[in-house]
Every structure is written in structure tokens, then in C-alpha cells.
Automatic annotation (TrEMBL):
<dbReference type="InterPro" id="IPR011009">
    <property type="entry name" value="Kinase-like_dom_sf"/>
</dbReference>
<keyword id="KW-0067">ATP-binding</keyword>
<dbReference type="InterPro" id="IPR008271">
    <property type="entry name" value="Ser/Thr_kinase_AS"/>
</dbReference>
<dbReference type="InterPro" id="IPR000719">
    <property type="entry name" value="Prot_kinase_dom"/>
</dbReference>
<comment type="similarity">
    <text>Belongs to the protein kinase superfamily. CMGC Ser/Thr protein kinase family. Lammer subfamily.</text>
</comment>
<keyword id="KW-0418">Kinase</keyword>
<dbReference type="GO" id="GO:0004674">
    <property type="term" value="F:protein serine/threonine kinase activity"/>
</dbReference>
<keyword id="KW-0723">Serine/threonine-protein kinase</keyword>
<feature type="domain" description="Protein kinase">
    <location>
        <begin position="71"/>
        <end position="396"/>
    </location>
</feature>
<keyword id="KW-0808">Transferase</keyword>
<protein>
    <recommendedName>
        <fullName>dual-specificity kinase</fullName>
        <ecNumber>2.7.12.1</ecNumber>
    </recommendedName>
</protein>
<dbReference type="GO" id="GO:0005634">
    <property type="term" value="C:nucleus"/>
</dbReference>
<feature type="region of interest" description="Disordered">
    <location>
        <begin position="1"/>
        <end position="55"/>
    </location>
</feature>
<dbReference type="GO" id="GO:0004712">
    <property type="term" value="F:protein serine/threonine/tyrosine kinase activity"/>
</dbReference>
<dbReference type="Pfam" id="PF00069">
    <property type="entry name" value="Pkinase"/>
</dbReference>
<dbReference type="GO" id="GO:0005524">
    <property type="term" value="F:ATP binding"/>
</dbReference>
<keyword id="KW-0547">Nucleotide-binding</keyword>
Length: 397
């Protein structure tokens, strides 16, 4: 579920980036009336007996235990702000599933109910063909909303990490990009905006991989290896921050590094904010590095200008009251004057223009790839390419 607002930066290790997340205020209205899973949890004795949650409201479990009489807990697949995801064996359907066990805290329970609504809309409209994770069912167990999902493989972020941030080959990035844009186009057609697209929320469908020799050798001349997924199929997860058409568009959304300029400037946001995130993700997949490694607004805007050119004047002039301080006389970015440190100035200066960056990492297709990226990373949201337009770009075809 989205906990948009992560501010993890250069100073912190990459592995810490999943953890440092500021929680969005999720006190939005949502039904408290939760359904019970068939009769299972309600009528049969729960096994194991009831235990106290931990102090953060997480469900406490041991591997191998039953989770309701129907499921057996096999492993912990992930943990987010909103709960833990457990790999379980479903005795009834005789299959592996992933169960998100949401923390027993009201605001997370309410957010989970919104995520269930979104998952149901996505599933109803598409009957299992979409590139969005499929919800199988949900239930309320000892005050924890539990969402049962089809089990998927690791996230693109975990895959990159496992490869020590060695980039994916461009042909694989093309495959990921096409599928990602298909899922975003599908959501936008349904008037839904994901608002928290990032490599952590894109999962490979299969866990199978191949180990291939890498060209780099270390000082002892030992051969290095890298992993490649056997299949490029991916699906989107985490619809806890998804916005409906009629929702307020002034809040801060999206994990910091994937956040569009209109959000930072307080201009309000809409469908284009997802396309900006897709642009940041594709650069990261082909370079192995986050494009905007920052956790601060002014530095973030300076990085955007360095990579993509100056912010349009009409955006600067409409900046919200809290964002005008980033500009001198309402005309140009207060940079480097407003930088908080020399290190920050250096971090901005070492960034390349987008086209140069892409040519460094991508051999063939660099020209068409950077053209697509320039469309996705257009600073002005009204001129940014839409998901449907991006899907017919030559790079993807
Ligand atoms: N269907 C699934 N199959 C396999 N693993 C999954 C599945 N769903 C989630 N996970 C794993 O669990 C992690 C947390 O899931 P998710 O992002 O939905 O939870 P969250 O609490 O909303 O997290 P966040 O704090 O990032 O918003 C994912 O990063 C992923 O590693």
C-alpha cells in the first residue's frame, strides 16, 4: 500500500531506501464494515490461538504455523508500512498465495479497504488479463484486514539489488517499459491514478532466473555473474495510494524520487504524474541508479533542471505559497544560492543531460529510448506524453 513520501537519499545506503518512508495521512473516509472470509475465520477455532500484536500493530506469527485453518504460513515475502506479506499454502485451492496482513490500526484498515475497492475494479474490468496483481479474496482476521493475492516473484528493485545495481539490458527494459505503460494506460482508462509507481511496486510474475557471466572481472580476475529473469512478465502491485477521479489533487503523493515537478510545486496533479514516475523508473532500470537521488525539494528541482532544462515560466509563476521560496523574484530557481551544502551542489553538477546519460548506458536504440524518455519526463504535465501515446512510440515497437 502506498506510503508515498519516501525521502531516502544519497547519504543512506540503497538498502535503506525501502525503509525510510514518511507516512501519508490516510485518514480518508472508508468503510469500517469489513466482511469475514466465508465462514472460516468466524466459525472454526483459529489455529494457532490468539496472540498479542506487536506494538506497531503487526500480526505476530511463526513460520510453519496456520494462519486461519485454511492457510499455512511458509515465508515472509515482504514488509511495508501497512503490513506484512506472507507466502501461504492455501489448503482449499491447493496453491501458493501471497497474503497481505494489514496492521491492526484503524487508518491502515481504512486504507486497506480502499485498496480492496481498487483491486476489485481492476479485476472486474479485466478478468485476469491485466498486468495488475490479482486479488483472490479478502477477510478480517483478529482485527487484521488480510488481502489474498496471486503469488508473484521478486520486485524489480530487489532484482537490481541482487545484481548489485547492475543495469538490465536495454531489450529487457523495453519489455518492462511496454508492460508498465500498458498497466498504466489500463488504470487511466478506468479513471484511476496509481500515484506510487516505483521499482519496488513492479513484481516479476515468475521467480525463475538464469545466471550469466558478467564481463567485469575483479582484481583476482575471478568471473562475475549476474542474474537475469527467465521471463520478462511483470505486474503492478500496491494500489493503496491509487486516486479516484473525484479525489482531492492537492496532497503530496508519490515516493520522493519518482515525484513529478507539478507535485513539488503544489500545482495539483493528475494522470501525467504516473508517466513522470515511469520515466524515472525506466532510466533507473537501464542505469542501475535512481535518476533523482535526493530527499529535498530545492535540490530535486535543481536536479530536474540540470537533466531536463529549465522549468517553464508558467509553472514557476503558479507555484504554491510553500514552493515560491525555491525561486528568486518568482523567475528562476534559487540555485546554487539556496543549496544546503557543497555536497548538494556537487551532486547536482555531476548529473548529465538526459540524452548523454542514456547514451552512456544504452548501446543500440539509445536515440529512440531517449526520445521516449524526454516525452515521459516533460516538465510541463500538460505536454507530457500520455500512456496510450507512449505505447505507440518506436522504442516500444
Ligand atoms: N502478490 C505478491 N506476491 C509476492 N510478493 C508480494 C506480493 N505483494 C506484495 N509482495 C511483497 O511484499 C512487499 C510489500 O507489499 P506492498 O507494497 O503491497 O505493501 P505495503 O505495506 O503497501 O508497502 P509500502 O510500504 O511499500 O507501501 C512488496 O514489496 C513485495 O516484495
Amino acid at each position: 500500500m502506498g506510503s508515498s513520501g519516501a525521502d531516502h537519499g544519497r547519504g543512506e545506503g540503497r538498502d535503506a531506501r525501502k525503509r525510510r518512508r514518511l507516512e501519508r495521512d490516510l485518514d480518508s473516509p472508508g468503510s469500517e464494515a469489513v466482511r469475514d472470509d466465508g465462514a472460516a475465520a468466524a466459525t472454526r477455532p483459529a489455529s494457532p490461538p490468539w496472540r498479542e500484536d506487536d506494538r506497531d500493530g503487526h500480526y505476530v506469527f511463526e513460520l510453519g504455523e496456520d494462519f486461519t485453518p485454511r492457510y499455512k504460513i511458509l515465508s515472509k515475502m515482504g514488509e511495508g508500512t501497512f503490513g506484512r506479506v506472507l507466502e501461504c499454502w492455501d489448503r482449499e485451492k491447493r496453491e501458493h498465495v501471497a497474503i497481505k496482513v494489514v496492521r491492526s490500526i484503524n487508518k491502515y484498515r481504512r486504507a486497506a479497504m480502499i485498496e480492496i475497492d481498487v483491486l476489485n475494479i481492476l479485476a472486474r474490468s479485466d478478468k485476469g488479463r491485466s498486468r495488475c496483481v490479482q486479488i483472490l479474496r479478502w477477510f478480517d482476521y483478529h482485527n487484521h484486514i488480510c488481502i489474498v493475492f496471486e503469488k508473484l516473484g521478486s520486485s524489480l528493485f530487489d532484482f537490481l539489488k541482487r545484481n548489485r545495481y547492475h543495469p538490465f539490458p536495454v531489450d529487457l527494459v523495453r519489455e518492462f517499459g511496454r508492460q508498465l505503460l500498458e498497466s498504466v494506460a489500463y488504470m487511466h482508462d478506468l479513471h484511476l491514478i496509481h500515484t506510487d509507481l516505483k521499482p519496488e511496486n513492479i513484481l516479476l510474475v515468475s521467480s525463475e532466473y538464469v545466471k550469466v557471466p558478467s564481463y567485469k572481472r575483479n582484481s583476482q580476475d575471478a568471473m562475475h555473474f549476474r542474474y537475469l529473469p527467465k521471463s520478462s512478465a511483470i505486474k503492478l502491485i500496491d494500489f493503496g495510494s491509487t486516486a479516484f477521479e473525484d479525489q482531492d489533487r492537492s496532497s503530496i503523493v508519490t515516493t520522493r524520487q519518482y515525484r513529478a515537478p507539478e507535485i513539488i510545486l503544489g500545482l495539483g496533479w493528475d494522470y501525467p504524474c504516473d508517466l513522470w514516475s515511469v520515466g524515472c523508473i525506466l532510466v533507473e532500470l537501464c542505469s542501475g541508479e535512481q535518476l533523482f537521488q535526493t530527499h529535498e525539494n530545492l535540490e530535486h528541482l535543481a536536479m530536474m533542471e540540470r537533466v531536463l532544462g529549465p522549468l517553464p515560466n508558467h509553472m514557476i509563476q503558479r507555484a504554491s505559497r510553500s514552493a515560491v521560496k525555491y525561486f528568486r523574484r518568482g523567475a528562476r530557481l534559487n540555485w546554487p544560492e539556496g543549496a544546503i551544502s557543497r555536497e548538494s551542489i556537487r551532486a547536482v553538477r555531476k548529473l548529465d543531460r538526459l540524452r548523454d546519460l542514456v547514451f552512456q548506458y544504452v548501446g543500440h536504440s539509445a536515440a529512440s529510448f531517449s526520445d521516449l524518455l524526454l516525452g515521459l519526463l516533460t516538465l510541463d504535465p500538460s505536454r507530457r506524453v500520455t500512456a496510450r501515446e507512449a505505447l505507440v512510440h518506436p522504442f516500444l515497437n
